[in-house]
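Sequence only, no structure available. Ideas?
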Amino acid sequence: MGTDIHGFIECRWDRWLDEDDREWFRAIDLSHLYNGRSYAAFGCLFGVRDTTSFRPLAGHRGLPPDVSKEGLADFETWSDELHGGSWISWAELAAADWDDVANEVDGCVHEFRRRSDGSWRMHGRNTGLTRFAELSGPADARQLYSAGSVYPENTEWPDGDTRFRVGRLRRRDAVPDSEWGAVWSTMRTLADLHGDEGVRLVVWFDN
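Reply:
I predicted one. C-alpha cells follow.
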C-alpha cells in the first residue's frame, strides 16, 4: 500500500501584534497545489519513506503546538493510521541548500536534456524508459526500473541532446519545481504579506 501526503498552508495574521497575541489560520489545502506521491520528496522534506538519501529538512516534528483550529479539526477527521506529522516554515525552505547532494546513489536512472545554451538539465527519474531500454539493453525489468542498483555511479548512455545517467539526486531534483512549484509560489506570495516566519506548511501521511 502506498503513502499519501495531506496537509495545508497556514498563515499567522496580525503580524503587528505581540507574539503571544498572534494566531495561525489555515490558508489553503495542500491538495489544491500538490497531489503527487514522490517518496524522494517525502524523505527529503519530512523523513518519510525514503529515510536515508537526505537529512530531512523537517523530520517528524509533529503538529505545531499552536496549529490553527481549522487545521486541527481537519487532522482529527483522519484515522489512527496517520504518521509522520510535521511542519516547515517558509523561512526554512527559503534558507535550505537545494544543491545539497544525496548520501547515496538514486535507484532510478536520471534523464538529462540539453538546453539551448549547451548545459544539461535533469528532466526526470525513470522517464524515457523505452529509449533507455534500447540504449542499455537491460536483461530484465529490475535492471530497467532500478538501474542505480545495477550499474556503477556515473554510468552514462548518451543519446544526442538527451543522456541517461546513474547518479545522486540534489535536493532540488528530489523536490522538483515541476511538482512542488505551486506550493512554493503560494507560500512565497503569502510570505510577502505575513513575513517568512508567518507562513508554514503543515503535513501528515497515511498508508
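Strands lie at 4-12, 24-29, 83-89, 110-114, 120-125, 156-159, 162-165, 199-206.
Hope that gets you unstuck.
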